[in-house]
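Worked example

This section walks through a single chain of length 342. The input is the sequence exactly as stored; nothing has been trimmed or padded.
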Amino acid sequence: MKLIVLGIESTSHTFGVGIAGIINNEPVILANEYDRYVPEKGGIHPREASMFHINHAPGVLLRALRRAGISMNDIDAIAVALGPGLGPCLRVGASLARFLASYYNKPLVPVNHAVAHIEIGKLVNRLKDPLIVYVSGGNTIIAVQKERRYRVLGETLDIPLGNLFDTFTREIGLAPPYVVGGKHQIDICAEWGDEFIDLPYTVKGNDLSFSGLLTAALRYARKYKDDKRMLGNICLSLRETAYNMLVEAAERALALTGKREVLLVGGVAASKILVEKLNQMARLHSARFCTVPAEYAGDNGAMIAWTGVLAYKHGVVIEPESAFVRQRWRLDEDDLPWLPED
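Given that input, the structure is written out below as tokens.
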């Protein structure tokens, strides 16, 4: 059996093209190319990010095809992330996918960006039924699969955890860039501190609230903006408080569901601190903990391509003229025919 799908990712700051498939009944990732928009100041500007994607899309597409050693004629289907994400950015990927599908007469497969983060994590770790902890700049979700859907057991009630760190480091003048040498600015700043400061800790069942934590941390930071050690203490305390909140909610969900696997996905999965905390929590419950390699932690085209493989195998296709973007497409909105029924 041979099935090859090209996937397009453009939901936020990354324009990515991945190529994945099944060859001789084995899953393969043939290419995972991307370019990433980094704002000169402030956060992501959707219009500027979309212009970046327009300018870089052809080069990324060609690099992916060269990396895989194939041409568009070898592609069986085109998959595209139609949401959730930033509207102007999503429309770039959708427009390219519609063009490629129409011009080369290829089936078009719609993909939920959040589902793709989970599926790539399950693939690389060979997992069947994990408790999912999905943490990124735009999402903080604890979920499980049930009756052909991902069911949300807990989530942020306001801002996501990744956005918390980005906003804080930006407001105190450390970012952008948000990541330097593979480390987030929050971790770099935390190394300056050695003392924990009490900050708001808000867990409501399995749901989390980070806005009060952000407000309190910024109040402290503005008071001690010229004291590097105190700023380090604030960064350290903010990070530890946020991660501990997430681990508490994840542990409650693990105890409730009795899952034997825990999977961390999303951009924040690159954090070694969070990985160690969740690993220790999982071990306490005799569960196996897994995360994704850095290559697949952030937004990437390979995860869209692989999820496209799963969807295409089960007949999930749409006409190009029906490929509308869905900026608020939730993880738990749709049935996924490749998931088990129970």
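What to look for: The mean pLDDT is 95.
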